[in-house]
Amino acid sequence: MSLGPEDVAVINGYVLPMNNRAPIPDGVVTFSGGVIDRIGTAGSVDVSGAGRIIDARGGAIMPGFINSHTHNASNMLLRGLDEDAELWSWLESMWKLKQNFDPETLYWASLCGLIEMVRSGITCFNEHFDAYAVEPEVEALKVIPLRATLGYGFADRGIYEPISEWSWKALENFGEKVARHHMSADGRIQVALSPHAPYSVGAEMWKLTRKVADDHGVSIHTHLAEGMNEVRYMQDTYGTTSVQWLESMGFLGPDVTAAHCTRLNDVDRRIMAERGVKIAHCPVSNAKLVSGTLDLGTVTDAGITVGLATDGPASHNTMDLFQEMKFAGLIHKDRTQDPLFLPTRQLLNLATTGSAAVMHRPELGRLAPGHPADIVVVDFDTAHTMPVYDPESTLAYASRADDVRFTIVAGEVLLDDKQIPGVDETEVRRRFRESALALRARSGA
Question: Of 342, 225, 212, nearest to 279 (Cα)?
Answer without folding.
Answer: 225
